[in-house]
């Protein structure tokens, strides 16, 4: 029982990270109708920027403080992601307005290749570490309930808390601010929003920046746990089944989908894996999402798809 | 002016329906085939055959397969690498396990197994489409990657997971030198390009295009979505699987699962986009572009006297690929094939503007 719960917790924590990446997708899809294949590349780019800035700034400006270096690096990485968002809007999206979803998807595939190359060219392609002072030691809980207790990683708990805070902040932003309302209006209907004077171009820059910042947070959490390297961009491949499971336009769907897939993946690996040779983590999420789509094509909380001629 | 059609009257139905209704096109095609079959084997070096022409031909075949699915039927797929892998491994198993199995039959058998896999993974397309389907086809990619890595019998229990095929023979004739391999690939590719071209012009091709343009409307006018979509998946995966078998048998000779990873899927999708969605000729253009670009990028710094590290070169290559994809989508969504047809149109009318 203790082992089972530990697996579930491990899955929930991994799921939280998938959910964070998936959140970036959903935000961008909601507000611009673009299925952003480049989210993984953005996570890599942001994490590389963060890791390298934190390494470079103390050298350039001659200070020692780790906290200061991290804060400066975070600010600089946010600025970098905003610039990236602006460039994406300027150079690609602006010229692809009103194209089909598939065209936009392929454009983001191109953007993802570009960001992969550019990030590694600018920031280097070795493995870097991000040290934001997350506690590494595990802790024991519920020692009296189970034999041996439950071993939880504090790092994972902090990560989950940060993720939850980010979601709360984003919800507030979407519900309470003027810009948030504009974003939702654009999501509902581009043309109507434009006709009442909401500047589409600015909204896109904002939404891609927010997507970039979410990617940065995901990258920092992931990077401080496992180091920053190219494989981080593959996390996004895990986030795809999460978004289609949760529904492309739903923030709660992304969170819940992430948790379901995180837990399902760990449990299946441990309890089903041995029968089929292991390593099923790689495709389990996809098969789960695929099976679910066959029953409910719009995902858990997605908008109902209505076909019209 | 260069391309005069005056006086070429079509006086029978077969003339009207010909693959190349304009005489100049017909001659050009025969000329091109003659050059490929007769001249090229004498002029190109072994290196060019191994590194440029043979991969180009095989990837063109795979791109034709993908183009049928994405360009003609509108079902976007990110799992092409998986179907190539199925073709290659199935052909390998047929070859290894059945004594005296003819090479051509095992290649075609690889294609047939890929067809089965394609239809299986195509079933979700009946319920979901567009972006959702794109993600669903990734399932095929990851599942096949895992399957070929973990199931030992797929690789005939080889310890390293890599397999190799030696002495390619058809009817006692051995394909050993790069030139012979090239001629084998060229024959197969030419044959299947012709078949594909005719298929997409026929009734089934029109059904696919109707599905692509608007599937609900197509269903209303009596096209069966199940039949149209699954045949597109079947034909596409057959050709892709055959290309995969050729890639493994003829181009690589020995390969491991990583040869058919997700990168291959993306690469093929890029070929189709850059070459031109919904165009058989475009598949060739796209494949040529993707095969030649890395070579070109490798040579340019040499010519300019710059030395850049391989890592930098590969990052630059990624960036240029990415930028070109976006560029093509913005400037010419129909790809190189459209540029070619525009040029052709201009040649027909020159020097008059209309």
Structure overview:
The complex is a heterodimer of chains A (309) and B (354). Chain A has 309 residues and is mainly alpha-helical. Chain A has a single domain, classed as ABC transporter involved in vitamin B12 uptake, BtuC, CATH 1.10.3470. Helix content of chain A is 72%, strand content 3%. The longest helix of chain A has 31 residues, at 2-32. Chain A starts with a helix and ends in a 14-residue tail after the last helix. Chain B has a domain at 41-261. In chain B, the strands form two sheets. Chain B has a two-stranded antiparallel sheet. The chains are: A mainly alpha (309), B mainly alpha (354). Chains A and B meet through helix 4, helix 9 and helix 11 of A and helix 6, helix 9, helix 11 and helix 13 of B. Chain B: GO terms for molecular function: branched-chain amino acid transmembrane transporter activity. Chain B: This is Branched-chain amino acid ABC transporter permease. Chain B: It is a multi-pass membrane protein. Chain B: It is found in: Cell membrane. Chain B: The chain crosses the membrane at residues 27-49, 56-89, 101-123, 130-148, 179-196, 233-254, 266-299, 319-340.
């Amino acid at each position: 029982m203790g082992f089972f719960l530990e697996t579930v917790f491990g899955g929930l924590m991994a799921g939280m990270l998938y959910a964070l990446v998936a959140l970036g997708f959903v935000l961008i899809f909601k507000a611009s109708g673009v299925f952003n294949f480049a989210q993984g590349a953005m996570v890599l780019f942001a994490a590389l920027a963060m890791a390298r800035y934190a390494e470079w700034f103390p050298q350039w400006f001659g200070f020692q403080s780790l906290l200061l270096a991290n804060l400066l690096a975070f600010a600089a990485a946010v600025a970098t992601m905003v610039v990236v968002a602006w460039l994406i809007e300027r150079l690609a999206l602006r010229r692809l307005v009103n194209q089909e979803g598939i065209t936009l998807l392929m454009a983001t595939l191109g953007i993802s290749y570009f960001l992969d190359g550019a990030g590694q060219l600018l920031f280097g392609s070795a493995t870097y570490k991000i040290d934001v002072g997350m506690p590494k030691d595990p802790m024991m809980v519920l020692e009296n309930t189970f034999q041996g207790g439950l071993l939880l990683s504090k790092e994972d708990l902090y990560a989950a808390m940060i993720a939850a805070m980010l979601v709360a902040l984003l919800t507030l932003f979407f519900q309470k601010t003027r810009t948030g309302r504009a974003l939702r209006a654009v999501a509902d209907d581009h043309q109507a929003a434009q006709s009442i004077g909401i500047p589409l171009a600015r909204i896109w820059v904002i939404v891609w920046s927010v997507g970039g910042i979410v990617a940065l947070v995901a990258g920092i959490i992931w990077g401080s746990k496992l180091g920053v390297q190219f494989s981080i961009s593959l996390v996004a491949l895990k986030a795809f089944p999460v978004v289609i499971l949760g529904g492309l336009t739903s923030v709660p769907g992304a969170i819940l989908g992430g948790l379901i897939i995180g837990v399902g993946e760990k449990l299946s690996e441990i309890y089903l894996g041995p029968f089929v040779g292991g390593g099923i983590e790689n495709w389990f999420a996809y098969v789960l999402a695929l099976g679910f789509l066959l029953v409910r094509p719009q995902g858990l909380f997605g908008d109902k798809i209505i076909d019209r001629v | 002016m260069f391309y005069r059609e005056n006086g070429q009257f079509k006086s029978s139905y077969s003339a009207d329906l010909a693959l190349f209704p304009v005489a100049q096109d017909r001659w050009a095609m025969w000329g091109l085939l003659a050059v490929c079959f007769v001249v090229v084997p004498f002029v190109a070096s072994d290196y060019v055959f191994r590194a440029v022409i043979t991969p180009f031909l095989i990837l063109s075949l795979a791109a034709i397969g993908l183009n049928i699915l994405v360009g003609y039927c509108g079902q976007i797929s990110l799992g092409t690498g998986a179907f190539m892998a199925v073709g290659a491994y199935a052909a390998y198993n047929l070859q290894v396990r059945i004594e005296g199995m003819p090479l051509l039959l095992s290649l075609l058998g690889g294609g047939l197994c890929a067809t089965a896999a394609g239809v299986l993974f195509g079933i979700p397309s009946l319920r979901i489409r567009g972006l959702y389907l794109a993600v669903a086809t990734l399932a095929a990619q990851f599942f096949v990657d895992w399957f070929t890595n973990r199931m030992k019998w797929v690789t005939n229990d080889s310890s390293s997971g890599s397999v190799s095929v030696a002495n390619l023979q058809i009817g006692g004739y051995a394909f050993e030198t790069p030139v012979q391999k090239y001629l084998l690939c060229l024959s197969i590719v030419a044959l299947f390009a012709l078949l594909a071209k005719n298929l997409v012009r026929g009734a089934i091709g029109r059904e696919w295009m109707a599905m692509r343009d608007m599937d609900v409307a197509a269903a209303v006018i009596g096209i069966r979505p199940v039949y149209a979509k699954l045949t597109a998946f079947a034909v596409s995966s057959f050709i892709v699987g055959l290309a995969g078998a050729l890639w493994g048998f003829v181009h690589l000779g020995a390969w491991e699962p990583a040869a058919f990873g997700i990168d291959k899927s993306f690469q093929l999708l890029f070929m189709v986009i850059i070459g031109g969605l919904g165009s058989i000729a475009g598949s060739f253009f796209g494949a040529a572009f993707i095969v030649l670009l890395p070579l070109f990028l490798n040579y340019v710094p040499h010519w300019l006297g710059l030395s850049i590290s391989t890592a930098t070169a590969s990052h630059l290559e990624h960036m240029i690929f990415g930028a070109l994809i976006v560029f093509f989508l913005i400037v010419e969504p129909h790809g190189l094939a459209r540029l070619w047809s525009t040029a052709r149109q201009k040649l027909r009318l020159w020097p008059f503007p209309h």
